Amino acid sequence: MNLATVDIVIILCYIVITLLFGFYVAKKASKDIKSYFLGGNEIPWYYLGLSNASGMFDVSGTMWTVTILFVYGIKSAWLPWLWPVWNQVFIMIFMAAWLRRSNVITGAQWITYRFGSAMGAKLSHIIVTIFAVTSTLGFIAYFFEGIGKFAIIFFPWDLSIDLGLFTVASEQSYALIIIGITTLYTLKGGMYSVVGTEVIQFVIMTISCLVIGYIAFTTVTAEQIAVATPENWNNLFFDMKLDLDWTGYIDSVNEKIEKDGFSLFGFLFMMMIFKGIFASLAGPVPSYDMQRVLSTKNEVEASKMSAFTIVVLFIPRYLMITGFAVLGLVYLGPELQQAGIDVDFETILPVAIHRFVPIGFKGLLLAGLLAAFMGTFAAFINAAPAYIVNDIYKKYINPNASDKTYVKYGYLSSIIIVLVGVIGGFFASSINELTIWLTSALYGGYAAANVLKWIWWRFNSYGYFGGMLAGLIAATIIPIIFPDTTSIYLFPAILLVSFIGCFIGVTLGKQDDIEVLKNFYKTTRPWGWWQPVINAIQKENPDFSPNKNFWKDMFNCGVGIIWQMTFVLVPMYLIIKEYYSMAFAILLMIITSIILKKTWYDKLKTK
C-alpha cells in the first residue's frame, strides 16, 4: 500500500519541523533540571492541557479504541474505564490541587515530602522510582507494537534485517526509526519540546479528526450500519452477558470477544468500577500525566489544566474513531468475513486510512497520528528519566553536581530506557494484551499503597514500601500463574496482596515523624483519617480548618464522570446517526456542565 508523493512530503515536513523545534528550545530547556523536566513551571495551563490531550491521543491507543468500537459497538464507550479514563475527573476535582501543592519535580521526590527522609522513606523512594521506570518500559513496548503495525501498512520499503540469530521484521524497523527520531527531539528540548510539539500535534489531529468524521458522516448511512452490524451493536446498555452475536456478519469477531475475555460484560463492568475507584483515588501514576500537573504554575491552574484536557480531547478523537470504525464495518466487513479466522483486528485503523482517506488529507492524518505517537512517547521518555536523575543520581550518588551534569544524565537515562523498552517490544504479542496488563495487573500493584498514602495518617513509609513491593511482585507473578485469565479479573488478587504488604509494613514499622506529617497535611490538605495530625496542628494554630470536602468532592466526581462520558457519546451517536440519543447526551452535557460550574469551578480559588 504505497503513499502518494504529496503525502510522503507532508509527513517528512512534519518530522523536520518537529526536530527543528526540539533543537530550537534546547538551550532554554538545558538551563537547569527544573526547566528540563517541568518547563520551569512557566508554561500556561491551557498549553499543558492541549499537550496532555495530545499525549493521550497515541497511535496504539487509537488503534485499540477503533478495534473495540468495531467489535463491541457503542458498548465500547465503557471499555476505556479499564484505565480508568475517568481518573482524569478525580484529578480535575481534587487530586491535581493536592499534588501541585507539594512543589516537587517528580512523584518519587513527593515521597520525601510525605514520609520524610528516614530509612523507610528511602526504601519507598526507591520502590516508586522502580515502578515509574517499569511502567514506562511497559508503555514503550506498547508503543513499539502499535507504531510498527501502523507504519507497515503505508510505507512501501521492505526494511526487514536478517541478523543471523533472529530477524528484525520490517514493521519493527519502522518502529525503531520513528522511536529514534522521537527520542532525539525529546532529549534536546525536554518538557518545552514535549509541550510545544504536542500543541502543534493537537492542531493537526483535530483537523484530521474533523475530516474523517465528515467523510464517514457523508459516506455511510444508518441503514448501511444496521445491515453490517448485529443486533444490539448500537445499544449502550447491557445485561450480565454481552448479547452480541457476529455469526453471519464477521464470524471471527466472536472468537476475538472470547479471547478478550469480555463476554461476561456485566461482570467486567463491575470489575472496572471496583478497579477504577482504587486507581483514581491513588492519583496519577508517576509518568507524563503527573509531570503535567507538577509543571503548572499553581494548584488552580493544575485543576483547570486537567478539566481542559477532557474538554478538548474526546469529541474530536471519537469523531475519528467512530468514523473509521463505521467505514471499516460497512466497506471492509465482507472482506473480513471472507478472510475467516486469519484477521488482525488491530490493523483496521491503518487499512481504513489507506482505503478511505483522500490523497493530501492522508498525509495530514498520518502526520497527525505520527505526531500523536511521538507526543505520547516523548512525554513518557521525559518523565521516567526525571526519576532516575532527580531521585537516584542526584539524591544518592552526586547531590552537588552541576545542572549541566544532571541534564546530560537525563539524556543518557532516556536512551537506556528507550533501548530496554524497545527490547521488550520485540516480545510483545498484541496491543490488547499489553493494554490489559498495564491497566489491570501493573496498576493493581500500585493502587493500595497510593490510596492509603493520601487518606490515612498512620500509613508509614514501611507500609508504602511493603505495599508497592508486594504489588509489583504480584503484578508480575499472578498473570504468569493464571495465563489464560484476562488481567482485569486478576486485579482483586493483586490488590489484596498489595494491601497485605501495606499492613505488614505499617505493623512492623514505627510511625513517621509527626513534624513531617504536620507539614504534609498543612500544605496538601487531603480528606481522610488525619485526626491525630489535625489535633497536633490545632495545638499550635487553633484557627486551622481541616478538609471536610469529601462528600462534595465525591458528588462532583460522580457528576464529572457523567459529564466526561457525554463527550465520548455525542460524536459516536452523531456518526452512526442516532440523533435522539445524541440529543439526550447533549442535554446531559449541558446539565452536568452547569452543575460543575457552580459546585466546582466557581470555588477553585477558595479551595
Automatic annotation (TrEMBL):
Broad class of the protein's primary localization: membrane
GO BP: proline transport
Record keywords, A-Z: Cell membrane, Ion transport, Membrane, Sodium, Sodium transport, Symport, Transmembrane, Transmembrane helix, Transport
Topological type in the membrane: Multi-pass membrane protein
Pfam families in alphabetical order: SSF (PF00474)
CDD domains found in the cross-reference section: SLC5sbd_u1
Location within or outside the cell: Cell membrane
Record-annotated membrane-spanning stretches: 6-26, 47-72, 78-99, 120-144, 164-187, 199-217, 262-285, 306-332, 364-388, 409-428, 434-455, 462-482, 488-508, 554-573, 579-596
GO molecular function terms listed in the Swiss-Prot or TrEMBL record: L-proline transmembrane transporter activity; proline:sodium symporter activity
Catalytic reactions on record: L-proline(in) + Na(+)(in) = L-proline(out) + Na(+)(out)
GO cellular component terms attached to this protein's record: plasma membrane
Superkingdom assignment: Bacteria
PANTHER family from the UniProt entry: SODIUM/PROLINE SYMPORTER-RELATED, SODIUM_PROLINE SYMPORTER
Family: Belongs to the sodium:solute symporter (SSF) (TC 2.A.21) family.
Annotated protein name in UniProt: Sodium:solute symporter
